[in-house]
Structure formats: C-alpha cells, structure tokens
Amino acid sequence: MKRLKHPLYRMWVRRHLVKLQGGFCCYCGRSFTKRGATSPTIEHKKAIMDGGTDDLANLAAACLHCNQHRGTQKNQSKQKAAQKTSVAAP
Ligand SMILES: [Zn+2]
Which of 4-13, 17-26, 66-75 shows the lowest per-residue confidence on average (mean pLDDT)? Predict the structure, then answer.
C-alpha cells in the first residue's frame, strides 16, 4: 500500500477525493475553496489510531473546518476518558 505521508501522493489523493465527491465536503456539503476554512483536507473515515488505514476506501475529503472540529471532539472525549480513568484509579 502507498504511504499517505508522501507529499505528492497526499496531493494526488486529496485532488482525487475532491473530484470523486464533486467538490463538496463529505460532512457539511459546502463546496471547497482553495484557501481558508473550506479548503479540502484528507479525512480518515476510521482514524489510524482506531485501526484505520491509508487505503483510499478509508479516506474522504473534508473541509478544514470539519476536519478540525472532528479532531477537537475526539480530543475532548479522550480527555474525558483520561479524567474518568484518573478518578477511578486508586
Ligand atoms: Zn465541511
């Protein structure tokens, strides 16, 4: 499998996904712009840390805003989980 870390491959994947989705974000449905909050980013449908892969089937194009928002939500739930764990610990 190709590694997503290669910048040229990333660029190709992002363009491919944007084209595949007709130029719209997979979450909010806004059309992508070149810059700003609605510029396209590569989103893992299943996060790498949850066992997801860099396979095209696991990737989607999301706008920067949605991508960041999702990331924040995940971090918050992780922090909550960490707090629970520390409370439960003796
Ligand atoms: Zn979006």
Answer: 66-75
Angle at 8 between CA 32 and CA 75, to 5 degrees: 60
Q: How far is the CA of 54 from the centre of ligand 1 (A)?
A: 20
For residue 87, how far is its CA from the centre of ligand 1 (angstroms)? 36
Domains and CATH numbers, the chain: 7-75 (3.40.1800)
Q: What is the pTM of this model?
A: 0.74
What b/e sequence results for 38-50 when a residue is b if at least 16 CB atoms lie within 10 Å of its CB, and e otherwise?
bebbbbbeeeeee
In angstroms, what is the span from residue 41 Cα to ligand 1's centroid?
Answer: 10
